[in-house]
Write a structure and sequence with these properties.
Helix content is 42%, strand content 19%. The chain is α/β, with parallel strands linked by helices.
């Protein structure tokens, strides 16, 4: 989602107030992301490369092209460029500990039929969240038939990376235990590649969180972490309602540390499990 990088692009021509307002409207309409005032430097940094790819001299020219052609492919490139895909392995460790020690066992025991647990990473980015859960399941001795994971994201470009399961040294250094790196990855040149036994536990597809997810679920466990912070209140409520519609009653929603279910207490019950806060679908 929209990030907080510092510094300015050097496109040679700063974006006009009119074009910045146009992009704010376009990006909100296409993604629900709120591009705050004062983020002109971010727009320049993110969109100048797209302008160059189109043979244009500035982001202002890119805005003119967007107005003129209504090109869905170009609009998607702009939205994907304006999303921040900040993620890492085993982010917010207390939640994974709660899953390991309590929640996954509870969910497995509560199933009314011998079906696999259905898990959804709703803002999967490049896949670290999905594969963290897959590795955790493997460590717990759960077979692929016992726990299935879907990862979705608005940006197809990051989903392609997630499907490949290829990560840089910097990426595997962020949160991944060394023992897991040795056990579940192989080194290929400058990258680390997930072994098939882990990649086969997950699948990925594009999804806009503002849309219904009923056809994707229902799910026992949903990760929707560090994405609501980029939406306005109306969109947050809509997303949370869409998520709940796609969950089994009694399933668990995991949010980011600074996020909450707002006042939608009729949809979710707040619980503390160890050091983690989770939300159980009513």
């Amino acid at each position: 989602m929209v990030g907080t990088e510092q510094g300015k692009a050097t496109s040679g021509k700063e974006i006009t107030a009119e074009n910045f307002a146009f992009l704010q409207q376009q990006i909100y309409r296409d993604s629900g992301i709120v591009l705050e005032a004062g983020k002109q430097y971010l727009v320049e940094a993110r969109l100048a490369p797209i302008a160059r790819q189109q043979g244009l001299g500035s982001v202002n020219d890119l805005c003119n092209l967007l107005r003129a052609v209504g090109n869905d492919g170009l609009r998607r490139k702009v939205v994907e460029a304006m999303t921040t895909n900040e993620t890492q392995f085993f982010r917010e460790p207390a939640q994974y500990e709660a899953l390991r020690t309590s929640l996954l066992g509870e969910l497995l025991a509560a199933r009314r039929s011998p079906r696999p647990l259905a898990c959804w990473s709703a803002a999967a980015s490049t896949g670290q969240e999905v594969y963290s859960l897959a590795m955790l399941a493997a460590e717990m001795g759960l077979a692929p038939t016992e726990l299935q994971i879907l990862g979705t994201d608005l940006a197809e470009s990051v989903l392609e990376r997630a499907r490949a399961g290829r990560y840089s040294q910097l990426e595997v250094n962020r949160g991944l235990p060394a023992a897991y790196l040795v056990k579940y990855f192989t080194r290929q040149g400058l990258e680390w590649v997930l072994k098939d036994e882990i990649r086969r536990r997950a699948r990925f597809q594009r999804h806009d969180l503002r849309d219904s997810a009923r056809h994707l679920g229902p799910f026992d466990l949903v990760f929707c972490r560090n994405v609501l912070i980029y939406f306005d209140e109306e969109t947050k409520r809509r997303v949370l309602q869409r998520v709940r519609e796609a969950m089994y009653a009694g399933g668990y929603l995991l949010l980011g540390a600074v996020e909450s279910v707002l006042d939608l207490d009729h949809l979710f019950e707040r619980r503390k499990v160890g050091q983690a806060i989770v939300y159980q679908a009513r």
